[in-house]
Input
Amino acid sequence: MSPSQHEQRTDRTDGTRPAPARGPAPAERTGLLGVQSTLGNTAVLHLLRQGGHPYTAAPRGVAVQRFMEPTGSGDAWQAEALAYVQSDHGRKILPTYLKQTLGKEDSKEARRELLKELGMQKAAAIVSRAVENGPAAAGPDLDKSLATVVRNLNIMEQENVTAAKAGESPGQVVPLPKVLVGTEFTFTDGTLNGTVGGNPLRVDLSGLKGRAVKAAEAAIGYATKKMDDWALKVASAPLPKGVALAVTATDIKGQAAKRFTYTADSAPWWWEITMDDGCLETRTAPTSVGGMQAGHVEFIIRRHIFELAGKSGLHVDQSIFGGGGHISVDSESAFGGSVELFVKSMRMWEEQWEKWVERFGAAPREKDTVNAPWTGDLPQGETHLRNVQELLTEILADAHQGNVDLPGAVRRLQAHMVALPLHRDATQNLREKVAGHPEDRLHYQAVNLEHMNADSAGSRRVEFRDIQAQQGYDQLMGDLRHIGDLLQDARYGVMDDQEARLAERHP
Output
């Protein structure tokens, strides 16, 4: 990363840095065509605005990022594309590109020069005529010109979000302190894991009959008592100064659970206990890496989770049978809608999988080839890894040409990863599960992408599964630093690549 680009990126404030939340392009709207042919495109835009069309307005205080498919045709697509280029969002892409991504002044002369450098002067002129006088005035090349304009807006938009996210401050104490993470801590004992009594906890009772059901219900009853005992200890334990605690019963995926919500001057922070096969599992609220260092959060993790789990007769099992210590990374705070950041991070993780295993699979931890195999470690792993590399290269090239956004990139990668074989170490139970529900294969991968296109933007995340249980807070923070370093290394590489690309595009 050159010093000039580092200075240019890191001097931005939260007020000037866009924080887009990407969404899919809307479906075609019938009914627009008659309005357009009778009253013109201005009337279409007016109706779309009245109806709250996502291209024409955004909730106050929310920066909306939209991707317009550039390869459509026909009257419906034309109406959508014209509405898009005239929308508040569409109009902001080019000035943002000039000012924040290229570091130039936004002026008429600068815009003319930019259109020239992008080779879209003629297309922009045709689209402008359509906007001002209606589609009929633009001539037969309107669709082609709209596709050129939309594609270039997509290119600029991707450059904007890439520059904004890659240029965030890397942090001093921990890397990428603003990235949100979620944790899973797991605890067990001889009864829960079946080494004592031979009846391990099983949360999915489907397929069981007769005595097997009764045995499974007995294991769940034992786990519930352990969870209740732990919760009582938390409820009576000392609290950080100025912090109040509320304990509530809830359920997670149909299993009994306890939630602990702490309130202070800052926003509430919570964690939960629930059941998983062979163990009790905790989940913490999505928290920034920097927030994990807050005094009350550290106190809660050290004292209320790990210490009181031990006093409840539970321990950490760092083998692959212990439940794991999975860490999730929020998509928006990590990638900001940037295809390039996501693709190059994914490429780094997949290509450097053996280094990951060295770090997270060293004794007493183990690498998990059953539930979280790496692509390169699968049967014919070299071939599968090469195929993933080639697909990532294709996706990135499409993004650089304005043809795909992050949700589209994720869908393409998901479609490939879900078809990968299981590891040779996979259990018969897992093989039967995936055979019955092939979509579940996406879950059982070292880098789990199943939630990257969740309906709720706040639920979109990458889960690192080849991480065994943490022994405590200090090991957790070490794990987060390592993952943060990998993400930051990817950002540095992206910044260098983008700087070279922009210099070539805008000499």
Observations:
- The first strand starts at residue 21 and ends at 23.
